[in-house]
Amino acid sequence: MNTTFDYIVIGAGSAGSVIASRLSEDRDVRVCLLEAGGPDKSILVHMPAAVVAMVPTSINNWAFKTVPQPGLNGRRGYQPRGKTLGGSSSINAMLYVRGHRWDYDHWASLGNPGWSYDEVLPYFRKAEHNETHRDAFHGQGGPLNVAEIQQPSAMSRLFVDAARECGLPITPDYNGADQYGAFMYQVTQKNGERCSAAKAYLTPNLRRPNLSVITRALSQRLLFEGRRVVGVQARIDGRELRFEARREVIVSAGAFGSPQILQLSGIGPAAHLQSKGIAPVVDLAGVGENLQDHIDYVYTYRTGSDTETLGASMTGGMRILKGISQWKRERRGIMTSSIAEAGAFLRSRPDVDVPDLQLVFVQAIVDDHARRLRLGHGFSCHTTLLRPRSRGTVRLNSPDPAAAPRIDPRFFSDPADIALLIEGAHQQRRILDASPFAPVRGKGLYPLDQRDARAVEQDIRDRADTQYHPVGTCKMGHDSMAVVDARLRVHGVRGLRVADASIMPTLVGGNTNAPSIMIGEKAADMIRADKLDH
């Protein structure tokens, strides 16, 4: 096995897949992509509705847990993360959401030149092939295919009708000029299959002679000469191998994995590293700080078994079996569904300019990330707090690279977050209780008097958890807690960048897969430009 490359990318997730693909377009450089998970050949990855089999289990999934959360009444949160080519883009619900213009302008205002909305929009467009929207906000011809839900459920259409009844505008392109309103989500799919970052960027290019994609390769630590990173030590098939990087190492292991790798390598808060027996190379206080995540609350109503939902019943089982058969033959039918098909962006108050709440409607009963199976049928709605004030940490549990990191989101540690999510729950119920749902709406899975604010708060603390969007643990900036600069170079180290959701200084108002792909596109361009500058 050749172990010397120009660039080594750690992590084949939403950003890493992009970076490895784009850098290897230059035939004069050799690129190695190290992925701790396996290949992405499973039908569960490519059949969209099979997301329900991966998120609640350890199939292609790290299935992390948080430390007990006081804000969640002492519960340990659940943190699914993709463990395969494509990372979390191979196990997510495929919703194509960029966030709001304000988010990126805010990053730039924090002292990160090049990251305003107008400056990142070209990278969203470069990545995208949008089957519907052809305008200044969207791209055609990019690797990432963005499509409409192929066969939306009638229940999802009821949600849009109910939102309209409650006064929300219908916004066909929530990634365009205006985010506010209700809509059917666009999804990262192509011809009835998931279009993950790996499927978009890696699969078409695996035969490039200058691109080596190595799966089941657990990166253990970075290798240094002084304060320059010169390679990576990884464990593959029980062997520890050293990979040399002539130019750069790019860490793209996500909001949990990237700070873990830096800390294992001696980059991070010195006292914490020493407490784990790791000699500090660079005392960088912000590594693993600034963890932000979308806290999310689900409400569910039961329905009859004859409604167009996915559920655990004889009727539902037959419908799914027929759907799998149809998908295998035609790549059409109910198994092309993302399950989460409709949604909305809301404002908690009339005087709020930028939507601060997101709804995701699901044509099924959702309880504890689908880890708690319920017989029967129903529909659910997620309410997500888009810009939480609470901040958490990612630390090492152990110096063993195979050990899970210590994840502490500190949900609701800022009391403003619970107040805002209570308001989100009220708006959620207004829509679910509207007249379009009356013919199918049964009992609530967790009956709750919405007028009792204390009961609503208790239910949120009893059941709320992540919406799967952790960011910020290697944040971009120049303050004392920043880890990378605006070109994603790690402070105090040469030959090393971080490029993934961990570099976000603040959480965007929406799902994080599309922004992570954008970060990968922009990072690849910066790496190439910096090479030319030298």
TrEMBL record:
Q: Does the keyword Secreted apply?
A: no
Positions of the Glucose-methanol-choline oxidoreductase N-terminal domain:
82-105, 254-268
Return the Pfam families for the record: GMC_oxred_C, GMC_oxred_N
- Cross-referenced InterPro entries, in alphabetical order? FAD/NAD-bd_sf (IPR036188), GMC_OxRdtase (IPR012132), GMC_OxRdtase_N (IPR000172), GMC_OxRtase_C (IPR007867)
**Which superkingdom heads the taxonomic lineage of this protein's source?**
Bacteria
Family the entry assigns:
Belongs to the GMC oxidoreductase family.
Official protein name in the record: GMC family oxidoreductase N-terminal domain-containing protein
